[in-house]
Specification:
The structure holds 2 protein chains of 2 kinds.
Chain A (H helix, E strand, L loop, with lengths): L2 H8 L7 H10 L6 H18 L7 H10 L10 E3 L6 E3 L1 H10 L8 E4 L6 H11 L2 E2 L4 E7 L4 E6 L1 H6 L4 H8 L6 E6 L2 E6 L6 H12 L2 E3 L6 E7 L2 E7 L3 H6 L9 E2 L2 H8 L1 H18 L6 H12 L19 H5 L4 H11 L2 E2 L4 H6 L19
Helix pairs in contact in A: 4-13, 5-12, 11-12, 12-13
Chain B lengths: L12 E2 L5 H7 E4 L45 E11 L4 H10 L11 H18 L1 H15 L15 E4 L3 E4 L2 E3 L1 H10 L20 E7 L8 E2 L5 E2 L2 H21 L4 H19 L20 H5 L5 H6 L7 E8 L7 E5 H4 L3 E5 L5 H10 L7 E5 L5 E3 L2 H10 L5 E5 L5 E5 L9 E9 L4 E3 L4 H4 L7 E5 L4 H10 L21 H11 L2 E3 H10 L13 E3 H6 L8 E4 L5 E5 L2 E4 L4 H4 L5 H10 L1 H22 L12 H27 L10 H26 L5 H8 L5 H9 L2 E2 L1 E2 L2 E2 L24 E2 L9 H36 L3 E2 L5 E2 L5 E3 L19 H12 L1
Parallel strand pairs in B: 2-3, 10-18, 11-17
Antiparallel strand pairs in B: 3-7, 4-5, 5-6, 8-9, 10-19, 11-18, 12-15, 13-14, 13-15, 16-17, 16-19, 20-21, 22-23, 23-24, 25-28, 26-27, 29-30, 30-31
Helix pairs in contact in B: 3-4, 6-7, 15-20, 19-20, 21-22, 22-24
Classes of the chains: A alpha+beta, B alpha+beta.
């Protein structure tokens, strides 16, 4: 598109939404004359005004219906294989419920880590670097010697070399957990001896269990890593998340890296990012189920989840609890508690929302019930 | 029908705790005796059924307001409790107050200098962040001070107070009786209560009851059994217990009985009062009937789905409604509903008589209620109604005058709301025009099945007749079928041609050539009477016949189902076929354009004509399906056979590789999983391939025509019937459950070949082997369970969503706000567009560009 035409389009900046202007810019051929552009803009503006939403429209209910109605068509299958090479993902209805509930721990937390320099070696190196590796993974065998009261742990040479570690690094990492024990290392194995008098065999056993869980390398929470090709470049898919630490790494492209746990995104990046995560994640599920739901409906749900300034789920403890009307809250769940609190605090229900007015047989302040008429009496 | 003027409007509802004084003031009677009726069966004065509390027997008059049964609302009463008892629902608050107030001076344990600070903080929070944050802050403050062991005001030492659930308070190890509790609460000064979030004027000692309010008799009516015996309401039973124990406690106290006995009775009184409020207190045995049935007391009445709030207050019932089975009728219009005449004679529409319609309405009354179309009732200007019968008819006809209302039978063209449950979206209840038909079922155009999600396997639907002008206007303007055509979910049409409507048009535009006579006959049968646009030729192409239905200045370009171009210029279908992509529901791009350009009514009419055209084409041409439709040509059959053989060979190879350890694992998978996945993939590929082959064969059977046009069925269905049923999968994997190491005893242990793991090589036409059938049954059961488990889950999600979002509305300046006027979005959907007025969520810029630029060239 020619520059002058683009400028002309920009004069409609305040009249038409950005997305529509972009669409015009992208699809008008270069050959179009100035008059053409003008007519196009005028007609688009007219069409836009026609397509605008009416005041009083109960958009909330429309969105709730639009998401709730196809809910019955979604599959319940918790796990499914998204393609052959990827990991398990929660999809379908359980995932939608998980997101809208804003559950603190989600079933399959995942990250897609993009690199600034997505060469395959770099990707592989990063994958190895961030995977949380526990001590137990290096161990080939444990032997508990009851007579000598010691614990001998044999380590795998190959795995140590893979991670560029040696036995000394291990001792360093284990020192804190193995208080009260002395460590002796010889070729590829570690021996733990009780410092004090050899007392209970249970201590050694407990030590063994404790050692197993010691993190040797990687980032906490990242259970599984998988380098995959996404479009033209390689990325790292992780099962388990640690957004904060991943974003802090130099080689990671923080602008594109995403995480599917909205609470974690909220903690790390804030509310707006969490809102976007909710929208993206819900949309992903809907697309994978082959359903057609307009993005605006999902946006509205995400917005109501964020409206109080904190990320809240659509549950009796979340969004519904924030409602101003006593009767609206009572009509959802746990009515008695709401009524008792309302009585003690002397709450007044101003009857501004839907259910209360249904209860007392008065018009609902939405749509045609919203405007009032004033008559001039002669 | 009485003229309905709104004389009073409820502006707000306040909630508060009743003080003993208020209870007494609003009471009409004091209840002193547990007896209900005297020997004549007449309610006892001072009993629980006292006529001052309202009446539930015909013939009796309420002594308080002088009204009879059904007119009196009933009045509250009260019982004076011999000893105070705590109110179980306030137990938490009482505990908090006891813990955080001084046992000697009664002040809160918050130092003087902090009270003002907290008060300001709370007020600010309440204003800025809403009551919910304020509530949280109060909890923080209360928790902070309730553990202090020294009073900052008088220096008194504090003891530890414990609640022994459900309602006994202990200070260290001595029990605090409700009297003591009440005394302590009385000492708390008024000004400090605000810090607890309590309402102004509320006194905490009210939470310990000295006087118990008694609900009116009308709220707890008794039932007279057939034997003449009276069966009292659960609440009355409970109240009887309370009165009885209270009486005994009084007597014992007056007689100076030993403290132990009084304590016991007191405890019993506490138990009864507690279960009167809530019979589901976790630590208490629920009060029961003699038969062992648990009593339903106050809390039970209010809560849960069957409780007062959700069942009676939020759920409404209505008259002037009907329900019956539905059946299809493609010949009635999209926005019509066929109503059985029997129903039309008992559903009525009120019409007010004036000078101009009096003659017309008289006719209805003349015919009476037994002859259709007649009238069932008339309503006089004073609001009294009269039944129209053979006897009263003459009299009524004489007095009929302007101002009277005639409730006439339903006639063609009346407005009705039609609904099918579950009402999941707004298209589940739409406005139709009535068409009175013989028979006993509702008739509807099959094209509207989709929005209602209805079929005709015995579905029932509901019909409502709006009774006021306002309701009718709103129904017609906002809810009429054609106004609901475009779904607000995705901005495409939810109605469209279905089944034969699509097949017929597909065949017509694809291959049919008609003689002029045939074409005229066909079009006339679809309701086209202007045949001037039919080309004046002997042989008329199907496309030209279809074009007659199109508006003359209509231009459209798009794709059909198989991806070929469809072009319409100036109302002439030039290229392309009319199939599901352009006519069908939930796609229907051509329909969508017609809707936008020519309006809702035109689109509905157009759809009706196109549907009829399709059906008429089929009925003239002939169209049926049989087992022979599944026959494949010899070449196709051979091809499919070789595809399957190759797939099985491939699977065998994979297994062989796996056994030899030559298989390369996929990243992140074990060898076993890799093998499974690769086999699954190979077999599914084979099935899809055979489906494609079957679809592509030269010979067009009726089943194939339906699949190709999108009318019914798809490639997979055809493949399963004609070629191969394919791999049965459970949870995304081949079937691997059953016996140890094998799926069925028919197979060898460790057999992982396709057929042992659920690959059904046969097709439905040739028939399945027993083990194949069993695998099919396994996946069938799995799918059934999935649906059964999903429905309640998604129902609950929907309920929560709609409850959370029901009061969001668009403001007059385009913002989305909630009930408390908090802004949720500054522009709805970030661009203020109504999805149902967009094309799949977009403003159609392309059409405009094409029009403007194209028009120049």
């Amino acid at each position: 598109m020619k520059a002058e035409n683009a400028k002309l389009v920009d004069t409609y900046e305040n009249k038409l939404p950005f997305s529509v202007l972009e669409e015009i810019k992208n699809s008008v051929p270069d050959s179009a004359s100035k008059e053409n552009i003008k007519t196009i803009l005028e007609e688009t503006f007219a069409l836009y005004l026609q397509a605008k939403i009416n005041p009083g429209e109960c958009v909330g209910l429309v969105s709730a219906e639009s998401i709730g109605e196809p809910g019955t068509q979604m599959t319940l299958n918790t796990f499914h294989f998204a393609g052959v090479a990827e990991m398990n993902v929660t999809t379908g209805l359980p995932r939608i419920i998980e997101i809208f509930d804003c559950q603190k721990t989600i079933k399959t937390p995942m990250m897609e880590v993009y690199l600034k320099d997505p060469k395959i070696e770099n990707v592989k190196a990063l994958a190895l670097k961030i995977k949380e590796t526990k001590f137990s993974e290096f161990v080939t065998s444990y032997s508990l010697n009851i007579f000598e009261q010691n614990l001998k742990v044999t380590l795998s040479r190959e795995l140590l070399d893979d991670h560029g570690l040696d036995v000394k690094d291990m001792i360093k990492a284990l020192k804190l957990k193995a208080k009260g024990f002395t460590m002796e290392s010889d070729d590829g194995s570690l021996t733990f001896i009780h410092k004090g008098k050899p007392e209970d065999i249970k201590d050694l056993y407990n030590l063994k269990e404790k050692l197993k869980a010691v993190k040797i390398s990687g980032l906490k929470g990242i259970r599984q890593v998988l380098p995959v090709k996404r479009g033209e470049e390689y990325i790292v898919l992780t099962s388990g998340t640690n957004l904060k630490e991943v974003l802090e790494m130099d080689e990671v492209d923080a602008t594109r890296t995403i995480c599917n746990d909205m609470n974690e995104v909220y903690q790390v990046l804030g509310l707006e990012a969490a809102r976007q995560t909710v929208i993206n994640e819900v949309y992903k599920v809907i697309e994978s189920q082959g359903l057609n739901i307009d993005i605006r409906h999902i946006m509205l749900v995400a917005d109501i989840m964020c409206a109080s300034g904190v990320l809240r789920g659509i549950t009796r403890y979340g969004v519904v609890k924030e409602k101003a009307s006593v009767l609206a809250r009572a009509s959802f769940e746990t009515p008695i508690r709401h009524l008792i609190n309302a009585a003690l605090e002397g709450e007044v229900d101003a009857l501004t929302s839907v259910v209360e007015n249904v209860m007392i047989n008065q018009p609902v302040p939405l749509g045609t019930g919203l405007p009032g008429l004033i008559t001039k009496l002669k | 029908m009485k003229p309905q003027f709104v004389s009073k409007k409820i502006k707000s509802i306040s909630f508060a705790v009743l003080s003993p004084k208020v209870v007494k003031d609003m009471s009409a009677a004091k209840v002193v005796t547990p007896e209900l009726y005297d020997r004549e069966g007449y309610p006892v004065d001072g009993g629980l059924m006292d006529t001052r509390l309202g009446v539930i027997d015909p013939g009796l008059v309420c002594k308080t307001d002088g009204l009879k049964l059904k007119d009196t609302l009933g009045h509250f009463g009260y019982i004076e409790l011999a000893r105070p008892v705590v109110h179980i629902k306030f137990i938490r608050q009482i505990l908090d107050l006891l813990k955080s107030s001084c046992r000697s001076c009664g002040k809160l344990l918050i130092p003087e200098e902090n009270t003002a600070k907290y008060r300001n903080l709370l007020n600010k929070m309440g204003e800025e962040e809403g009551f919910e944050s304020r509530r949280r802050q109060i909890k923080i403050i209360v928790d902070k001070y309730k553990k202090k062991d020294k009073c900052p005001h008088c220096g008194g030492k504090q003891e530890k107070i414990k609640l022994d659930k459900p309602y006994n308070f202990y200070e260290n190890d001595t029990r605090l009786s409700p009297i003591e509790v009440r005394a302590r609460l009385e000492k708390i000064p008024d000004e400090e209560l605000g810090l607890f979030g309590f309402a102004l004027g509320f006194r905490p000692e009210w939470m310990v009851l000295t006087i118990l309010g008694i609900p009116p008799v009308t709220m707890r009516p008794s039932i007279t059994l057939e034997s003449g015996e009276r069966s009292e309401d659960d609440l009355t039973h409970k109240l009887g217990d309370i009165v009885r124990i209270n009486q005994r406690l009084f007597e014992n106290i007056n007689a100076g009985a030993p403290e132990v006995i009084i304590e016991d009775l007191w405890d019993l009184l506490q138990y009864h009062v507690t279960t009167f409020f809530d019979n589901e207190v976790p630590q208490l045995p629920p009060a029961r009937h003699r038969g062992g049935q648990v009593l339903k007391t106050l809390v039970n009445r209010i809560s849960s789905k069957e409780g007062r709030i959700r069942h009676n207050l939020a759920g409404k019932r209505t008259d002037f409604s009907a329900r019956t089975v539905i059946s299809p009728d493609p010949l009635i219009a999209l926005n019509e509903v066929g109503v059985p005449q029997a129903m039309a004679m008992s559903l009525t529409v009120p019409e007010r008589i004036n000078e101009w319609n009096i003659e017309y309405l008289r006719k209805y009354v003349e015919r009476g209620s037994k002859v259709y179309p007649g009238a069932n009732y008339i309503i006089k200007p004073d609001g009294r109604r009269k039944t129209v019968t053979e006897e009263t008819k003459e009299e009524i006809l004489e007095e009929l005058a302007p101002g009277y209302v005639v409730e006439r039978h339903l006639i063609d063209g009346d407005v009705a709301l039609f609904n099918r449950q579950p009402s999941l979206h707004r298209m589940s209840m739409m406005c139709h025009h009535v068409k009175v038909l013989p028979g006993r079922t509702f008739r509807l155009n099959p094209a509207v099945c989709n929005p209602y999600n209805a079929d005709f396997d015995g579905d029932e639907m509901n019909l409502h007749i709006p009774q006021t002008e306002e309701a009718r206007a709103e129904a017609q303007v906002l809810m009429l079928v054609e106004t609901q055509m475009i779904s607000p979910r995705y901005g495409l049409s939810v109605v469209g041609c279905i089944h034969d409507g699509i097949t017929g048009n597909y065949l017509l535009t694809k291959e049919l050539v008609l003689t002029r006579l045939e074409a005229v006959d066909l079009l006339y049968a679809c309701g086209v009477d202007d045949l001037s646009r039919l080309p004046n030729k002997d042989k008329i192409d199907g496309k030209e016949v279809f074009s007659v239905l199109l508006p003359e200045d209509f231009n459209f370009s798009g794709k059909d189902k198989s991806g070929n171009d469809v072009k319409i210029t100036n109302g002439k279908l030039k290229t392309g076929l009319m199939d599901k992509a352009n006519l069908g529901q939930e796609s229907g791009l051509m329909l969508r354009n017609i809707y936008e350009r020519y309006g809702a009514a035109y689109a509905a009419e157009f759809l009706g004509k196109v549907s009829k055209l399709g059906i008429n084409v089929l009925s003239r041409r002939g169209f049926s399906i049989g087992i022979g439709d599944m026959d494949l040509t010899n070449e196709t059959e051979d091809e499919i056979k070789s595809v399957l053989e190759r797939a099985e060979l491939e699977a065998e190879k994979i297994i062989e590789h796996f056994n030899q350890g030559k298989l390369e694992p996929l990243p992140g998978r074990s060898l076993q999983e890799t093998m499974e996945l690769r086999i699954l993939e190979a077999l599914n590929r084979a099935r899809n391939k055979s489906g494609d082959l079957a679809m592509r064969q030269k010979f067009d059977s009726a089943a194939l025509v339906m699949a190709k046009s999108g009318a019914r069925g798809n490639a997979l269905n055809i493949a399963q019937m004609a070629a191969v049923v394919g791999q049965q999968a459970l949870r995304g994997r081949r079937i691997d459950h059953g016996y140890s190491g094998r799926t069925l005893p028919y197979f060898k242990v460790g057999d992982v070949s396709p057929k042992a793991r659920g690959f059904v090589r046969n097709n439905f036409k040739s028939g399945l082997t027993p083990y194949e059938f069993f695998f099919g049954a396994m996946t069938g059961r799995d799918a059934l369970m999935d649906t059964a488990l999903r429905t309640p889950k998604s129902g609950y999600l929907y309920r929560r969503l709609s409850n959370a979002m029901q009061d969001l509305k668009v403001d007059y300046n385009g913002m989305v706000r909630d009930a408390s006027n908090r802004v949720v979005q500054f522009a709805y959907g970030e661009d203020g567009l109504d999805v149902s007025r967009t094309k799949n969520g977009q403003v159609d810029v392309h059409r405009i560009i094409e029009q403007v630029i194209g028009g120049k060239e």
